[in-house]
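User: I'm writing a short methods note and want a consistent example. For Phosphoadenosine phosphosulphate reductase domain-containing protein, I'll paste the sequence; you return only the structure tokens, no commentary, since I'll be parsing the reply automatically.
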Amino acid sequence: MQTEVYEDLESGYASGRPSLASFSNPTRVTLTDLHLKHLNEQFERFSPQEILRMSKLVFPNLYQTTAFGLTGLVMLDMLCKLHAEVPGTSPVEIIFLDTLYHFQETHRLVARVKERYPETRIHTFRPDGCRSALEFEERYGYKLWEIDGERYDYLAKVEPQQRSHNLLNVAAVFTGRRRSQGATRRNIPVLEVDHEMGVVKINPLVNWSFNQVQEYIKANGVPYNELLDRGYKSIGDWHSTQPVADEEEERAGRWKGQQKTECGIHHKKSRYAVFLRELAKRQAEEQGETERATEAADPKATIGPIANMAVDLAPRAASPKAAEEDAVALVSPSGVPKMTKSGRKIGFSLGPVTARYTCPVQ
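Assistant:
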């Protein structure tokens, strides 16, 4: 896959162009329900270090995805120590989604982490085509997280994550989710299959408490975000993160006052991706209806952009199901144009206010 590198790959900061991924991706590692159940039963008895060690043996193309929260930092330290046990092996590399709205303290932490763990490579992915918050706002609008939070999550987090998985050929990822974080995380297993992203997710510290994580950080001198000393326990974007009181749940400061506990990365379905698919479906159906109406009035007539796609869509446009399948096949979840067999480009323009379906003539 060709990529456009915005910064030097050797620094670990790179962002490829959006992948032409489907809305549901086949997993690169296949686990039957029985196998998944068996692994979860075994891993429940293991320590985090044992889960990490076994996962490195079992899963290929394994990465750690983290925003450098406490759990992710504990895991990074553990992985580096395990790597030192077997000289010559490759360390687990990191995927970091830079939304462009992280605290400055978070970016300073990343610099300290790179200095402390020089052998671990960090792959940083940003929103498509954006290298700063200003560029993001010029392209998608000011305070998008307030105007359309689902769309913001998709553009800033879900799409870059999909792109990272495709570009790096990711099969499995370590995450820092724990049951003690509450909300939707109370019952997560050690292992789970994310069919939308097409990866196996591994949660090695799922049984640890916040205090256990904090004790490990202190005992092992692991660098951590200075915001933790100011009352923050879970740290994301600056516009949606607040300190929490002692009696509050760990993630209570995330999206405070909203009926929201996750950003879209760990949802079963990205609702904005579903929105894109439904919009493409509606537009395809409308075009099919227009084409049929025009043909009924004048069978020899052609209609602008639809005529340009006739070789690909006309034979199938007679049924809504066919129109839906064509719409889904031609539009990527990131809104990037795909090419039809005839070379016609199906554009999907996402402006600051609404999504717009276009069919430019080439």
